[in-house]
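Contributing new complexes? Match this layout with adenosine monophosphate.
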Amino acid sequence: MIKAVTGTKDILPSDIPKWKHLESVVQTIFKNFNYSEIRTPIFEETVLFARGIGEETDIVGKEMYTFLDKGQTSITLKPEMTASVVRAFIEHSLASKQPLYKLYYISPMFRQERPQAGRLRQFHQFGVEAIGSESPILDAEIIQIAYDILRRLGLKDLLVKINSLGIPESRENYKKELRHFLNDKKNKLSEDSQKRFDTNILRVFDSKIETDQELLKGAPILLDYLDEESKIYFNIVRNILREADIPFEIDTKLVRGLDYYAKTTFEIISGKVGSQNALCGGGRYDLLAEQLEGKPTPGVGFAAGIERILLACENEKTLSLPEEKLDFYIVTVGENLIEKVYNAASILRRRNFSVEFDYLDRSAKAQMREANKLNARFVIFFGGDEYSNGYFSLKNMQTGEQKQFPLEDLKTIVIE
Ligand code: AMP
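Output block (do not edit by hand):
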């Protein structure tokens, strides 16, 4: 049997109501904050991600779906959106149209990671990118957007963690100190962390290995090395979050994997989804546009994983959605009236009612069962002498009340 590729998942009709609900909450909140949607292609030239995300990151180094197309161009299925959005921003000279763009997206992403609960190879993210302003208000705003969405989905077991990476100069000073601190412990670090020591030392903090974390105890603290400007900036972000009633913790080890972050970083963690517990993450990336050969343009954004959020909703039992209802089910009794039934359904469907009838030659009893299963609000009965005399019956499934109407009333009938 041919199965879906490892790490990919079908989203079946029974799952769709949850997805639609999440998407509608997400879209409502984006609209409230005046973010506009952007859609970019599923694949890009590999060099975009190599340059934008950084060669030394796990995403670029290990996880990308990369292939040569027939024209020998190296193509990559997008592993995240920020680089694509900034590419589009530069390519279409959006900066010349308005100074600040507040953009959002909902899109599949692709990373060849080891699949486990909450970790897939094709997964879906929603997120925002606010490009064109250095204001700390936007850092706080995007954290609030992420938090408000998760709260509106009913999630309670949430932890917002924030940190500041400062500007590159202060970060370099810090990296030197950290290197100094870890230098004589290097051999005891895990193999991965030893590599990170050489390529991207901040990422040693991301290690999930206990001995690595032990060795990091007493390490110098990034926030102590912040430049004055970044300190003031971080203070403003925190003050606005307090004003907006967003509980948060400072996590001085929250460096996040990507090269393009500067100043604010944040993550929101769920206590209900196991080891892959980050529901969303993001931060400020003022240097990315330049790395992609655009004019220097500040930006800040986050990405949130839809599958993981739905898992958290399931585990916190937050999604009890109203059942989908059908307006009319047409039950045919007796003789073969399928064309008439089809026609009646068409009239109602063109009037924007949802209508279903039997395609499988089932008995009237089985059709009624189906009407119940589909949560039909009304059942129309077609058939027998009643139909021959130009009438149909209409049953209100909630009250059980049944009435007769002339057939031409299908064109005008109104239901509450
Ligand atoms: P990142 O771009 O790695 O910061 O990821 C942002 C969010 O996307 C994470 O917090 C997760 O919720 C989600 N995510 C990242 N990678 C995966 C994956 N492989 N499978 C499912 N969700 C993911």
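Reviewers usually confirm one structural detail per submission. For this one: The two ends are 48 Å apart (CA to CA).
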